[in-house]
UniProtKB/TrEMBL annotation:
InterPro entries the record matches: F-box-like_dom_sf, F-box_dom, F-box_only_SRC, Kelch-typ_b-propeller
GO molecular function: ubiquitin-like ligase-substrate adaptor activity
Compositionally biased tracts (Low complexity): 397-407
GO cellular component, one term: SCF ubiquitin ligase complex
Taxonomic lineage from the root: Eukaryota, Metazoa, Ecdysozoa, Arthropoda, Crustacea
Domain F-box stretches: 11-47
PANTHER family: F-BOX ONLY PROTEIN 42
Organism: Hirondellea gigas
Biased composition (Pro residues): 377-389
Superkingdom in the source lineage: Eukaryota
Region (Disordered) location: 372-435
Identification of the protein by name: F-box only protein 42-like
CDD domains documented for this protein: F-box_FBXO42
Length: 553
């Protein structure tokens, strides 16, 4: 006869390794926290699981590969909203986002039709659901290019940009100096007005250091015009007062659209940025904050960092999302063409060389053409109010549609006084220039095609790519290591991880990238014009980037 068991086996009879493997498939947000409250043994196992998830993700960022999904983080299969409902309410760019507990908050942003929002969305990272928060109080103005950070149980919102419509052309955009606070528990917006604050600003960055908000750069309003700045403004939240610290003589160039990464309470790095029309910066600066951040006589010092491994850096950093992961900064940007040359065929290589040889016949290269016409590879800066009402620039976008873009800004000179702009002598000069550039581009294409045909006939290569075919593009993960930034003043670009599988995400600009528990959350963004994806292809508003799932012990 079979023996009789007096007690049923339970999950507590499993060894720790099996129990941890089961808990590994639980959501690392609220669910893992609930499991840790069962008993002391489960609490210890949950702690090990969270450490393992974090370490696996850091290792995947450094060595690869990484996975992405629009619905799951590879630890659970939660319900997902339909694509029709998500794209209709979350398709936006130039918004601001921040993490609070197991939720991600998204505010504002704009669309390709210049429509700005002032709605607040809450993304539940445990269930992967999203809902619009119906708030009360003094609502912020609909805007984009603002900053929002978390302080205790509140969201602090400052600055931003907004415009009515593209037409009529002479309407000016609006920069804001509004400061709002959203109380998460009370679900209320509150507007604050402080003296000695920064002017109306957009495209700036901010980090929280204790109870002080440090804001750097941006596009500021200066009378009737606007221009980029390198000023630092600080807000003492407790004392409700703005102040400007004393800065060292060596300072970075004015910029907006940059990234501000907090290393600790005393150190911040500034990455990339744009100073104006055709003024892209790829430098990296270190800001050292005194121990007493509110001391009026303490000097804040800037230091230009040495960049190593530049062959592994993206073609451009600004307008692309960045996020700190351990001792690394992750940048999601379009994959450089040079990274895929090893997989290119001979025909593509000849096409590349033919394009370079065309310069011998006086045909301008792409960088030269970019100096006089909007470049596809360089997305537009965040849009300010146009400094010259007669010459508003809406053509500097990387998208084929009309998207907001900052107008060309020029420093004031003795011959250029604010408020006394000289109108163009030739009103049709812009259209004539575009016509000449179009003809020059066609001549370049013909010459390039003739040279390619001649080289292919000599080498016997068939299957040359079409000249009008867009290059296949994908989003790549770039990694900037920070291990030696404080000791030696050196940052290093290293090879980033590859994507697991053959399907890779398409690149997007002006999106937000936040660090969750063992994953990165990418929200919003706009397509790039050089992207080869179809307009009818699904465009998920949220992507989750995570490490591959590990097997059983």
């Amino acid at each position: 006869p079979l023996p009789r068991f007096t007690e049923m086996a339970s999950i507590n009879d499993l060894p720790d390794s099996i129990l941890e493997f089961i808990l590994y498939h639980v959501s690392p947000y609220r669910d893992i926290k609930s499991c840790s409250l069962v008993c002391s043994r489960w609490h210890e196992c949950c702690r090990h699981v969270k450490e393992k998830i974090t370490q696996l993700f850091v290792d995947a960022i450094v060595t690869g590969p990484v996975c992405f999904s629009s619905s799951s983080n590879c630890t659970t299969d939660p319900p997902v909203l339909s694509s029709s409902s998500t794209t209709s309410n979350m398709s936006r760019f130039s918004h601001c986002a921040c993490m609070h507990g197991s939720s991600m908050y998204v505010f504002g942003g704009c669309t390709l039709t210049h429509t700005t929002f002032n709605d607040l969305w809450k993304i539940n990272l445990t269930s992967r659901s999203r809902e619009r928060v119906v708030t009360t109080g003094s609502y912020p103005t609909p805007k984009s290019h603002a900053v929002m950070i978390v302080w205790n149980d509140s969201l602090l919102l400052f600055g931003g940009w907004s415009t009515p419509y593209v037409y009529p052309l002479h309407q000016q955009g609006i920069l804001f100096d509004e400061f709002h606070r959203y109380d998460i528990k009370l679900n209320t917006w509150t507007s604050f007005v402080y003296s000695d604050g920064p002017p109306a600003t957009a495209g700036h960055s901010a980090t929280l250091h204790g109870d002080v908000v440090v804001i750097f750069g941006g596009l500021q309003k200066r009378g009737d015009s606007s221009g980029s700045t390198n000023d630092i403004y600080c807000l003492d939240i407790i004392n409700e007062a703005w102040f400007r610290p004393r800065i060292s003589e060596i300072i970075p160039a004015p910029r907006y659209g940059h990234s501000q990464i907090k290393l600790d309470d005393r150190h911040v790095i500034i990455i990339s940025g744009c100073g104006g029309y055709n003024q892209l910066h790829n430098d990296i600066w270190l800001l050292t904050i005194p121990e007493n951040i509110c001391a009026p006589r303490e000097v804040w010092t800037w230091k230009l960092l040495t960049i190593e491994g530049t062959n592994f850096m993206p073609k451009q950093v600004w307008c692309n999302p960045t996020c700190r992961v351990a001792d690394n900064v992750v940048v999601l940007a379009r994959r450089n063409e040079s990274e895929s040359e090893g997989r290119m065929g001979l025909a593509q290589m000849l096409f590349r060389s033919g394009r370079q040889n065309s310069q011998r016949f006086g045909v301008p290269s792409a960088p030269l053409a970019a100096a006089v016409r909007p470049a596809v590879e360089q997305p537009p800066p965040p849009p300010p109010p146009p400094p010259e009402p007669v010459r508003t620039n809406f053509a500097g976008s990387s998208s084929g549609q009309s998207t907001p873009s900052f107008s060309k800004y020029r420093e004031e000179s003795p011959g250029h006084v604010a408020g006394h702009h000289r109108p163009s002598v030739r009103p049709n000069a812009s259209s004539n220039r575009e016509r000449r550039l179009s003809m020059l581009s066609k001549y370049e294409d013909r010459l390039r095609a003739a040279m390619l045909k001649e080289q292919i006939s000599k080498s016997g290569v068939v299957g040359a790519p079409r000249l009008d075919q867009k290059p296949a593009c994908s989003q790549a993960v770039y990694v900037l290591q920070l291990q030696k930034v404080l000791s030696d003043g050196i940052v290093t670009w290293v090879p980033g991880p590859s994507w697991q599988g053959s399907v890779v995400p398409h690149p997007r600009l002006l999106c937000s990238l936040m660090l969750g528990h063992g994953e990165l959350v990418l929200c919003g963004g706009k397509r790039t014009e050089e992207c080869d994806c179809s307009a009818a292809e699904p465009w998920p508003p949220i992507l989750y980037i995570y490490a591959p799932r590990i097997g059983p012990p």
